Amino acid sequence: MILNSGNPAWPHTLKPVPEYPALDQALECDCLVVGGGMSGAILAYKLTEQRIDTILIDKRKIGGGSSAANTGLLQYSNDKTLTSMIHTFGEDIAVTFYQYCEQSVYQLKELCSKLSASPEFIPRSSLYFASNENDAEMLQKEYQTLRKYGFKVDYWNQATIAKKVVFTMGYETQDMKKDRNAVINISYAILTNPVEDFLDWHERCLIWETARPYLYMRTTPDNRIIAGGLDEAPPPAEKREGRILHQSEVLLNEIRKLFPRYSRLETDYAWASIFGTTHDGMPMIGTHPGYPNCYFIEAYGGNGTVCCMVAANLLTDELRGRPRPELNMFSLQRSSKPSPSNSLTIH
């Protein structure tokens, strides 16, 4: 599977890029982690913290697959709203999932503080805006749902905005087995040249929208803008470079529309990457009947890194002999459609 194409931005942020030796001898361990992307790295870290003898392997360079195309936007909110999750899975499962995601954001921050190389984890507020007037009611209901369950959010209507002026994993598993709940697309992203300031960008917050597929963007410490989205079915290989050029220009124009003062903004890096989601909006974590003694982390969706931490927490306990029944809600065998009682259906 061709995961990435174009010119990803991450390699320029870490020099020299760490190199790891090829496996040239027979080794034994208690847990073998296959895949050195975000899921594998976080899980291996958690397992070794618990003194579980762990080996991680990858056919590419570590972090060279889909994780290399990650745009670094982390939040507890997911592609599917909490309100919609409740309608699909019921209150207990939906709220628990969102709470796990919230906890995992803080755990990722704590993990970053322990690393020798600074990953520049910078807390930002997050602005979720309505792409059109018809989405405003949905956003207000989501605000009320989040507040009801203790999540700290604010709702800005048109009057409020006028007063304040506001501006906003491994997918190759599908080559190994096909999950009926998985949807594989291609997503595009750009990294711009630096801008002089962000005076028009409220708190330099993370920005995303209600449209599907959605546009999202954030700022970088060196005053650049990363924007992504425009998800679509993967084009033929011979047309991919052309689509990158076209879609990067679309993304650049979307930034200019939100921030007119960046009219001279240019693209320094543009890339495309395979991007997976699920039909029901939840990641897939756990076992599969066709692969005895195996677990899977398929943190598909825009909040993949946060869901990787959720998976690492659950599977670390599971592998230590502490059962985590919560894994049922992330079952790879679950139905992608809600049952009439809003409960999770396991086959």
TrEMBL record:
Pfam families: DAO
InterPro entries according to UniProt: FAD-dep_OxRdtase, FAD/NAD-bd_sf
Domain FAD dependent oxidoreductase: 30-162
Gene Ontology, cellular component aspect: cytoplasm
TM helices/strands, residue ranges: none
PANTHER family, sorted: PUTATIBE OXIDOREDUCTASE, SARCOSINE DEHYDROGENASE-RELATED
UniProt name for this protein: FAD-binding oxidoreductase
